[in-house]
Amino acid sequence: MSTADSAPIIPAPAATAPAEPAGAARTGDRASLVAPLLVLSATTALAFKGIVAKLAYGAGVDVAGILLLRFGLAVPMFWLIYQFFLKQPNQAPLHWRDVLLCVPTGILFAIATEADFRALVYLDAGTSRLVLFTYPAIILLAMAAIERRMPALRTVVLMAATYGGLLLVLRPAAGGAAAAADYWVGAAWAFTSAVTYGLFLVASRPVMKRTGSARFTVLSNTITFLIVIPFGLRHGVPEVPSLQAFTWGTIIAAVCTVLPFFLMNEGVRRWGAERASRLSLVGPVVTLAAAWIILGEQLGPLELAGAAIVIAGVAALELAGKKAGAKS
């Protein structure tokens, strides 16, 4: 949408202004719904990643297999879409320095993704999503360290409340010491994913300014795939996945990886990053509901209260981060 398209239209005086056709009003209403629907669709697709991964595990795929399937299928899709739809003819060519700058972000994303899928081996999809959802707190801490300043007292209080709510969610089920140990192993993997994903987002911002978001996404995911390959092949060539497992892997790659990127980018372009960020807060709610309906996962009253505290705390942290950025 160009600037002219989004400029406000000043109406003529009421006595001479023609009545707006009913069809035009309905068209405007529909257009105003496109952006939030795009953001909501992207958020929903991302929220289902853990659900589909659980189904893939049930079909016999392990962590290495799901990583190879996800990036092995997603990276060619990204390249094809970039070449045919997103490549700009007058865009400055990339230099090797730009490619090398994408290596650390590719490594961070590889660690975050592997840790996320490993957490799903031990944790319910909804619980794992809630732990990962705390990455905005990691971003605020990382930015405070980079800028060599102490986080504001309000930020510290909100972080304490958020992770306090997370502890309510992460109470190990009463299933013996071994079950509790596995539960906390899963929590550790999920928190590792949250930390590395938050650092990935911090590190990617300056790189994205140099390369552009589309080229950065293609390069970063390609580097991640190159890192994942030796991990997936370290025990030899994996078995050919079953048709069911391959189907779930394709869904993770296409629906839960590639599609959300383009939907969210278009939603942000039409609606703005701040409103898109607020709507994306429904992601954990979608995961919890889908995990309950599809996988039969349930949280007790105390865990649900903890989930509500986490979501509210992250929302407040994001708002605090935006205010701090506006002041600086």
> Helical percent range?
over 70%
Average pLDDT across residues? 83
Counting structural domains, the number is 1
Report the oligomer.
single chain
How many helix segments? 14
The biggest sheet, with number of strands, parallel, antiparallel or mixed sense and barrel status, is: none
Structural class: mainly alpha
Order of helices and strands: HHHHHHHHHHHHHH
Care to give the gist of this entry?
The chain has helices at about 5, 20-45, 50-60, 65-85, 95-120, 125-130, 135-145, 155-170, 175-210, 215-230, 245-270, 275-280, 285-295, 300-325. With about 325 residues, the chain is an all-alpha fold. Helix 2 (about 20-45) crosses helix 13 (about 285-295), helix 6 packs across helix 9 (about 175-210) and helix 11 crosses helix 12.
Descriptive overview:
With 328 residues, the chain is mostly helical. It has one domain (47-85, 94-236, 245-327). Helix content is 79%, strand content 0%. It is built from 14 helices and no strands. The chain has helices spanning 3-6, 22-47, 49-58, 63-86, 96-122, 125-132, 135-146, 153-169, 177-211, 213-232, 243-271, 273-279, 283-295, 301-327. Helix 3 (49-58) runs antiparallel to helix 11. The longest helix is centred in the middle third of the chain and has 35 residues, at 177-211. The radius of gyration is 22 Å and the shape is globular. The relative contact order is 0.19.
